[in-house]
Amino acid sequence: MSDADHIKKRISDLRAEIRRHNERYYQDAAPLIPDREYDALVAELAALERDHPAWAAADSPLTEIGETPTQGFATVTHAVPMLSLANTYDVDELRAFDVRVRKQVPSAQFDYVLEPKIDGVAVTLRYEHGALTLGATRGDGRQGDDITRNLRTIKAIPARLTTTAPPDLLEVRGEVFMPKAGFVALNERRAAEGQPVFANPRNAAVGSLKQLDPRIVAQRPLGAVCYALGACEGIAFDTHAELLATLKDFGLPVHPRTWICPDLDAVLAALTELESLRHDFPFEIDGGVIKINQRAWYDEWGYTAKSPRWAVAYKYEPERAETTLKAITIQVGRTGILTPVAELEPVTVAGSTIHRATLHNEDEIRRKDLLIGDRVWVEKAGEVIPAVVGVRKEKRTGNEQAFTMPDTCPACGGPVTRRADEVALRCTNRQCPAQLKQWVRHFAARGGMDIDGLGDALIEQLINRQWIESPADLYRITREQWRSLERMGEKSADNLMQALDASRQRDLWRLIFALGIPHVGTRSAQALEAHFPDLDHLMAASPTELEALEDIGPIMAQAIITFFAAPHNQALIADLKAVGVNTASHRPATARTGPLQGKTLVLTGTLPDMTRDEARARIEAAGGKVTSSVSQKTDYVVAGENAGSKLDKAQQLNITIIDEKGLLDLL
Ligand code: IVH
User: Fold this and answer.
1) Could you confirm whether domain 3-58 is CATH 1.10.287.610?
2) First-to-last C-alpha distance (Å) of the chain
3) Which of 8, 122, 193, 463 could form a disulfide with 138, with the two C-beta atoms 3.0–4.6 Å apart?
4) How far does the centroid of ligand 1 lie from the alpha carbon of residue 66, in Å?
């Protein structure tokens, strides 16, 4: 091949590869390679296209932004295209950016604004006369998905602007993200429920907003920040800083911290400060965004097909380390799912040592093309969870070994199967000791029956001695038996007996969660307790009755029905009752039969004579339910003085609004 042919081939290979990555990133929210590697491919292609304009093609992936429409959502055309940003990892390129913008518009007097860069989902929010009328994803930049219903569930996004004089039209652009703590908690819950976990907060945010059922979105911990303007009428801004200040006044979420910098040196100093604060933000940031502050000249700098020429993103080198994948072991979960786990040569990433990382499932191993013995990159997803993000194939020696999932359970030797609708393999032996261990752990966990002192080592001993076959058996273990366990003093045995005894009287929702019904987390369990007086009523509920509840979607309703239909689960519940575990709600019986039975109320503002807690208690005592946000399912909004956006939303949804006196009448 001639040089020219080589270059031509490289361009076409890069285009194909970038397209493949785009697809995985945008459509499946499951990137194949770290951002840094993707960005390097893009930079290489951009340089080749620049040097060989003859081969630049109209359909180059460099001129396309990401996503194709998602099934199930209406497509909306953006009034003003939603652009992305040029990005760099290199301070010299920032200097080049500064030189370029100064040369391009020599008369412009300007300063810069630096903002943190959150890695989430870009969205646009359309406010007409102050009311949120549309929320959409970026899509391909021109058209995106209408996800208004999902965005309305995010508390940070106001249904109405908090101003008495809203502009006719205000479209703001921003990022929806999942905070680090919420991400970790969500993944813990998903793992406990046998569902696949998200690789990082960004994927979790994307996956959440793609849900067709807004009730699921409402349960996801999502936040938002606004940082740019789309279409607007009846309002104008001279500077970006002014835009941000106005958005804040309007009640829109903006970055808690931004810097105004007179010149590039000040930008670089601010970037250093931002990096030192990097881990203090409740959300993950992957760099900083530098924008020219003076909006008047934006059109003179203009735009490329993908991004404005007056802004640039500076991205941090990822915090990751290289290490060896020594082995892949199998962990058997509570519901029998076999999860492959990477056993790593210990390595330090962002201040802590990583030994193991979940590989989720076999498909994930194939996708990443991992071999045992590989040198791999590890990162901390959400800055917390260790993850293998890539493999250094160029370092292979030929001694690496392919991994295959076992065809029997490594814990019990029992058969494993794959359900038609799942990628995961499961051990089907209900007596499997590994499953039993995770099951008992879940049952005793803090969010569940909260059995203090029942740690892993103890649970293992109980299983090894064949004293337990289900969590109910925990209550049958005698003091003598506890005393006979390794490292178990008299005091600890007494404490455990007491902890177990106390757990017999836990709230009903804790028991519901502890049962381990797929998809049912603590919050859904609480919603169930609020509706059902005891477990028997819950077990007898119909799908329609379950779905009518605020926090229960059709998938969860089905999971609950299936769970209670299984004879072994019915036997477990009978057994729990037999050992004295409470299966009734402690909430007063009147709570379900009072004048507000079945009614959902929202409190907003200050009531003249009652505190909020008092109002809530009285509503609950009358059988009503108090929720924090207004939706179609709200029956009454009780508004006091200084009522805010909830009142607006109630008006918008035509929900009956009452004051304290109205509430007392109802009671
Ligand atoms: S400005 C025309 N500002 O990062 C304005 N984007 O990698 C374009 N992002 O597409 C966006 N933080 O989704 C802007 N402070 C910020 C941002 C930000 C995060 C996202 C946004 C953008 C992507 C580029």
Assistant:
1) yes
2) 86
3) 122
4) 14
Q: Is residue 8 flagged as an active site residue?
A: no
Q: How far apart are CA 496 and CA 443, in angstroms?
A: 15
Rounded-to-integer distance, Cα 258 and Cα 251, Å: 17
Q: Which residue has the higher pLDDT, 274 or 431?
A: 274
Q: What's the CATH number for 433-578? A: 1.10.150.20
Q: Which atom of ligand 1 is nearest to the CA of 82?
A: 2
- The sign of the dihedral angle between the CA atoms of 136, 139, 145, 147 is negative
Using one digit for the tens of pLDDT, what is the confidence trace for 41-54? 888 888 888 888 87
Ligand 1 environment, Cβ below 6 A: 83-85, 87, 115, 117-118, 122, 175, 227-228, 289, 308, 311, 313
Burial-class residue 234 by CB neighbours within 10 Å (0-12, 13-18, 19+): exposed
pLDDT digits (tens, 9 = 90+) for 292-306: 999 999 999 999 988
Q: What architecture does CATH give domain 75-315?
A: 2-Layer Sandwich (3.30)
Distance 85 CA to ligand 1 centre (A): 6
pTM of the predicted model as reported, rounded to 2 decimal places: 0.62
Find the 59 Cα to ligand 1 centroid distance in Å: 23
pLDDT of residue 317: 81
Task: Write b or e for each residue in 368-392: b if 16 or more Cβ atoms lie within 10 A of its Cβ, otherwise e.
Answer: bebbbebbbbbbbbbbbbbbbbbbe
